[in-house]
Amino acid sequence: MSVTVRYAPSPTGKLHLGNARPAVLNWLYAKRSGGTFVFRLDDTDTARSTEAFAQGIETDLAWLGTTPDVKVRQSDRLALYDAARDRLIAEGRLYPAYETADELDRKRKRARAAGRPPIYDRAALELSDEDRTRLEAEGRKPHWRFKLDGRAVHFEDLIKGEQTVNTASMSDPVLIREDGSYLYTFTSVVDDIDLGITHVIRGEDHVSNTGTQIEIFEAMGAKAPVFGHHNLLTDADGQGLSKRLGSLSLEQLREDGYEPLAVAIMASITGTSLPVEPYESLEAIADKLDFSMISRGSARFDPAELATLNARMVHAMDFATVTDRIGAIDGLDEQVWMVLRENVSRLSELAPLYRELFIDARPVMADEDAEFIATARDLLPPEPWDESTWGAWTSVLKERTGRKGKALFLPLRLALTGKSEGPELKALLPLLGRKVSLDRLA
């Protein structure tokens, strides 16, 4: 069977690391299976959907490297939903209900008070044509509910194994609002059928929806796809990552200079049995990650782990990759990169660090170190310099002044760089050169 998966976000906010997880997992599964990755924008919620969010999502997916094979928008597919609606109404599976939100809330409260589950009582099915005419004459508009079979729906989850959802314990879901707009549960099934989706890979918070959707698939005369529900990314306290609060948004991670591959690794590997470590590409992850490796437990995201992973990937980059990513920086060559790279965890830190050390350095010299720095200047060796120069120079200084350890090295670092930490001075000193060093030690 040819595999077709889909990622279907709503353009009602920015993508964050949590909802990047299903995007990456679906892409990886399609790649591993030689299948098709469909990007479907669920943009029928006109009150909250915006074109800015839609464009932002596409930008984020491209940045991650999860380029879709097929792109569709639900707003372009309304005729398809209308036809499916008419079919389900004709077959008696969609029925109009007229209760207001307040009336439904009172019903739920009465059910709880009586010790019954607060599910919809299907009172709308008892309405006669005359009743419906009267309600509509009063100005009421119906919402439309799908009549569930009310049974145990069994399915084999690609990740969680055998699952059962009892739709008898659920209210008949509303598929069409009073204003005629469609809800996700309905349009998603119609799209999955039309687009030939074979596998639905999504968060475990959708497990309970699956029983309902399988019944809708069957009512539409279609075979349900294979479902796989993965664990959700949470923060260190086990709380979900909020889309509307912009928590760890991909846009912010991109602006902060994180590597897209590092972000994709964290989005997919966290909460699996694979170690969080550098991979050379998304394809390399696809070759290793099997869904049997996804934990049944939580997938807790640690920002420090992302920072460490990103730093490891940056430190391993060759100079050609760096210049390809951020462009040329005047004066920064391969030798300078090799010295500075261990001191940056993101490429966005490279240009500022280079400027601080080579262009805008402001030497720092304490009064009590003035005599020591003057001696150091006098003993500065002649060029040519290499990595042995630093050791030879500080050995002479140690013998002449009696200073050692931090008292010897820190004043020199502060005078040469203006910073208390940074690249190894044995490697940095030859790059600064004797003239610059003399000026900074003055």
Automatic annotation (TrEMBL):
The record, for InterPro entries, names: aa-tRNA-synth_I_cd-bd, aa-tRNA-synth_I_codon-bd_sub2, aa-tRNA-synth_I_CS, aa_tRNA-synth_I_cd-bd_sf, Glu-tRNA-ligase_bac/mito, Glu/Gln-tRNA-synth, Glu/Gln-tRNA-synth_Ib_cat-dom, GluQ/Sye
Q: Note the HAMAP family from the entry.
A: Glu_tRNA_synth_type1
For this UniProt record, give its keywords in alphabetical order, as a comma-separated list: Aminoacyl-tRNA synthetase, ATP-binding, Cytoplasm, Ligase, Nucleotide-binding, Protein biosynthesis
The top EC class, named as a word, is ligase
The name of this protein is: Glutamate--tRNA ligase
Q: Which reaction does it catalyse?
A: tRNA(Glu) + L-glutamate + ATP = L-glutamyl-tRNA(Glu) + AMP + diphosphate
Q: Which gene encodes it?
A: gltX
Which PANTHER family does the record match to this protein? GLUTAMATE--TRNA LIGASE, GLUTAMATE--TRNA LIGASE, MITOCHONDRIAL-RELATED
Entry EC no(s): 6.1.1.17
> Where would I look for the motif 'HIGH' region in this sequence?
9-19
Domain Glutamyl/glutaminyl-tRNA synthetase class Ib catalytic: from-to ranges: 3-272
Name the domain of life: Bacteria
Quaternary state and interactors: Monomer.
**Protein's organism:** Pelagibacterium luteolum
Where, in this chain's numbering, is ATP bound? 243
- Give the GO biological process terms: glutamyl-tRNA aminoacylation
